[in-house]
Amino acid sequence: MRRTLTAACIALLSVLGAGCATSGTSQTKQAGTSGPANITYWSTGGDDDTRIFQKAADLYHQSHPSVTIKVQTLTWDDSYAKLLAASTSRTGPDVVSGGLTWMIQFGRRGGMVDLRKYGIESLKSQAHPQMWKSASSPDGSVYGVPLDMSTELLYYRTDLLDKAGITPPKTWDELTAAITKLKAAGVKKPFNIDWGNLDWIGYFNFLYQAGGSFYTPDCKPALNTPQAKQALNFWISLYRKYGAPTANITGENALDTGTAMTITGNWIGNTIQASKPKLKGKWAVTTLPAGPASPAAFIGGRSIGITSYSKHAAQSADFIKFLYTDQAINAMITVAKGRAVPYIPPRPDAVSRADFPPGEEAAVAQSLKTGMPAPGCPGWDEAAPNVAKQLQSAILGKTDATTALTQAAKIMQDNAA
Amino acid sequence: MATVTGRRRPATWLRRHAVSYVMLLPFVALFAGFLVWPLANSLYLSFTNFDGVNPPRLTGLENFRRLFLDDERFRHALSNTATYVVATVVLGTLLSLGLALAFRGPSWPHRIMRTIFFLPSVTSTIAIMLIWKWIFDPNDFGLANTVIQWFGHSKPVAWLATPGLSVPILVLMAVWGGMGYGMVIFVAGLNSIPEEYYEAARIDGASAWQQFRRITLPLLRPVTTYVVVTSLIGAFQIFEAVYIVFRTNANTIGGVLDSGLMIVPYLYDIGFTHFQLGYASAIAWVLFVIIFAISLVNLRIGRAFKEL
Question: What is the pLDDT of residues B92-144, one digit of tens each?
């Protein structure tokens, strides 16, 4: 009995002690701006991305010898959790880059610095307007600014389309007609969706093309609309009636193994050139087929921000501003040339300087002009995976489009709170 | 006088035990720092709304109320986990025993076979899971689709995007990876049964099946209980397989329609992509209670059988 009591007391004391010791936010004392600063930058992506941003960091060091920036890679799979762990312990990087809207989610909890106090809004006029809007909080706070861009395009096999006697589809109707004709011409795999397959990104294209959106301008869920339903029904038909595979088949592999058309990210042009020699001269790219309201396609990309526990916030902000200069952009584009990952700068006026495979530049430019990025509304990053599950249930016939959209809107509402 | 003889003087006690306790100190420090302390922290956090960034605020039993009354995803994860645990433990134990009976001998072929079946247990789980992911990949290099094509199935199967296949695939991976370990334990158990029992049974005219049922199985009971309890605990804690094989992008866990969602990946998802570390801690403690209760029942059943 006495031992049990002792054990219980120890456990209780441990729990109480733990309660007293659990970390929380506190003001970080800033180091002086004139002294040396060693800045750590966690870059979400691959090693190629790290090399690209390290090049800019080295250039910055040349003009600011007291500031040294070390760029480290975080993979997409682990990054979000690692950033949260860093925020919890208040140790880790000064600068982080990740999903376009991530900084909002960390920032609204106190994990990121509002960059407005370092004059970062001077970049606003240079950045892609929609990207800037998505990366900024609805209350006006700027926890992150766009770092780069990517977009969804339609890649296709010219030989297979010629065989079916068709040209690349420009509208939804032309897309479904093309799939039918390709099937009739004996093409077994007419269509594939890579980036966004069974995911909200896939739905995003059709939603905006139908004239809908995920949120209203004041961040209220907006999926209970006829446009949202029309878009979902069309997307469902691509899988169930027109045979798009539900499995994730990467764009370059799809084209290489006989798929005629695939919707995917603009990076696969570089991948095809580097790793699919059989496809040489047999592929081309265009913008996504337009819907009844617009030709909008999803614009992806990363944002970059400063952690609230950084001791070098001023220098870090200055480095972020430097990333928008011609000098930094040109250097990063030079490093990106020949690598599998293209670098498209966040400044629309500098997009044409990027390294594109033949024929891709016009499609990317057009897509970025009319496209839209992920919504920057509070709670979107947390809600998105579960919204995707609702969309999946409609595609797989477990529920109807209306119910799926109602459930998705409820998830978005719950996460916004 | 009783106090003088009954209680040793502190100096004597210290002289006798000080070295032992000093030698225990490193373990105690590590145990307290890396087990007791985090456990106490998570218990405390389970009663808070901790989001990982802001200081935690006590919310009483709200996390547990939400877990049991409002959280449909948790119930789904629990149901998936229950199916997975039953299938993995039953199939895993039976196959481990079968392998042990087949390769229990001291000969080289038996040793080689035991080594082959044990290899997954000493191989990096991450590496194994990546290989499984490649096997079920729908791209042209996916082995599973290649194999079914050899047998005339021309249409590729979306292995990881078909909800009905998620749990069976997870069970297959777990049983394949775990049966070698169970086999080694069973072999040790089988070889500890005295040969005389079998000789006596054979003299009495017992068939092979009767020997297995009346001698082997009853005497393997402690080993079986050990294998069942450890595989049960391991099965409840499944994480890597779901995290690696069924993950399609940075923020998605659990596969299509959450068909592969289990409790620990759900806990991770809630904690690390939804910023709800307090709620995730509550899930962890519920999981602990479930595993503790089932293990206790298992041990009691094992003991009850022993007393029969």
Answer: 999 999 999 999 999 999 999 999 999 999 999 999 999 999 999 988 778 99
A397 to chain B, any CB pair closer than 8 A? The answer is no
Cα B187 to the chain's mean position, in Å?
A: 20
pLDDT by residue (tens digit) across A337-391?
A: 877 678 999 999 999 999 899 889 999 999 999 999 999 888 888 899 889 999 9
pLDDT band at residue A402 under the 50/70/90 scheme: very high
Question: Is residue B86 scored above 90 in pLDDT?
Answer: yes
pLDDT for residue B252: 73
**Residues of chain A contacting B269 with CB distance shorter than 8 Å:** 385
Q: A156, A117, A112: which is closest to A135 by C-alpha?
A: A112
Helices (H), A165-297: 172-184, 200-209, 226-240, 251-256, 268-275
Phi, psi angle pair for A303, to nearest 5°:
-120, 160
Residue (of A151, A77, A300, A97) closest to B247 by Cα position: A77
* C-alpha to C-alpha distance for A105 and A95, rounded to whole angstroms: 16
Q: How far apart are the first and last CA of chain A?
A: 47
Q: Of A4-8, A130-134, A281-285, B290-294, which gets the smallest average pLDDT?
A: A4-8
Helices (H), A22-113: 47-63, 76-89, 102-107
* pLDDT at A321 exceeding the cut of 90: yes
Of A66, A61, A152, A143, the residue nearest A97 (C-alpha): A143
**Nearest one of A152, A52, A142 to A100, comparing CA atoms:** A142
The C-alpha of A387 sits at a distance from chain B's nearest C-alpha, in angstroms, of 10
CB B56 within 8 A of CB B278: yes
Query: What is the least distance, in Å, from the CA of B91 to any CA of chain A?
Result: 28
Lowest-confidence segment of A64-68, A377-381, B162-166 by average pLDDT: A377-381
- Cβ atoms of A195 and A264 within 8 Å: the answer is yes
Number of A/B CB contacts below 8 angstroms equals 121
3-class secondary-structure state, position B281 = helix
Residue A78 CB neighbours (<10 A) = 14
One-letter identity of residue B97: L
Amino acid occupying residue A269: G
CA distance B264 to B287: 8
User: pTM (2 decimals)?
Assistant: 0.85
pLDDT score at A226:
97
Q: Give CA–CA dist B246/B252, Å, rounded.
A: 9
* Residue A332 and residue A55 in contact, taking contact as beta carbons nearer than 8 Å: yes
Interatomic CA distance for residues A377 and A9, integer angstroms: 46
A384 touching chain B per CB within 8 A: yes
Burial track B98-129 (b if 16+ CB lie within 10 A, e otherwise): ebbeebbeeeeeeeebbeebbebeeeeeeebb
Q: Which pLDDT belongs to residue B241?
A: 94
Residue A144 per-residue DSSP state: -
Asked if the Cβ–Cβ distance from B275 to A250 is below 8 Å, we say no
A392–B275: do the CB atoms touch at under 8 Å? no
B13 pLDDT band, cuts 50/70/90, is confident
pLDDT per residue as tens digits for the range B176-202:
999 999 999 999 999 999 999 999 999
- Side chain identity at residue A190, one-letter code: P
- Test mutation, B34, B46, B53, B239, chain A, max A CBs within 10 A: B53
Q: Residue holding tokens 């994990």?
A: A111
* Rounded mean pLDDT, A184-205: 95
Q: Which of residues 24-43 of A touch B (CB under 8 A)?
A: 24-25
Q: Are A15 and B43 in contact (CB under 8 A)?
A: yes
Distance of CA A3 to the CA centre of its chain: 56
